[in-house]
Amino acid sequence: MQELSMPTKYDPQATEEKWYDFWLEGEYFKADQDPEKAPYTIVIPPPNVTGKLHLGHAWDTTLQDMLTRMKRMQGFDVLYLPGMDHAGIATQAKVEQKLRAEGKSRLEMGREKFLEQSWAWKEEYASTIRAQWAKLGLGLDYSRERFTLDEGLSEAVQEVFVKLYEKGLIYRGEYIVNWDPATKTAISDIEVIYKDIEGAFYHLSYPLTDGTGHVELATTRPETMLGDTAIAVNPKDERYAHLVGKTITLPIVEREIPIVADEYVDMEFGTGVVKITPAHDPNDFEVGNRHDLPRVLVMNEDGTMNENAGKYEGMDRFDCRKQIVEDLKASGVLIKVEPHLHSVGHSERSDAVVEPYLSLQWFVKMEPLAEKALAEQQGDDKINFVPQRFENTYVRWMENIRDWCVSRQLWWGHRIPAWYHKETGEVFVGKEAPADIENWEQDNDVLDTWFSSALWPFSTMGWPNTDAADYQKYFPTSTLVTGYDIIAFWVSRMIFQSYEFTGERPFNDVLIHGLIRDSDGRKMSKSLGNGIDPMDVIEKYGADSLRWFLTTGSTPGNDLRFYWEKIEATWNFSNKLWNASRFALMNMDGLTYEEIDLTGEKSLADQWILTRLNTTIDDVTRLSDKYEFGEAGRILYHFIWEDFCNWYIEMAKLPLNGEDEAAKLTTRSILAYTLDQIMRLMHPFMPFITEEIWQHLPHQGETITRAAWPTRNETLDFPQAVPAFEAVQNVIRSVRNIRAEVNAPMSKQIQLMISTSDDQVQHDLETNISYLKKFTNASELLVERSMAAPEKALSAIVTGAELFIPLADLINIEEEIARLNKELVKYTKEVERVEKKLNNPGFVGKAPAHVIEEEQAKAQDYNEKRAAVEARINELSQ
Question: What range(s) does the Valyl-tRNA synthetase tRNA-binding arm domain occupy (predicted)?
Answer without folding.
Answer: 812-876
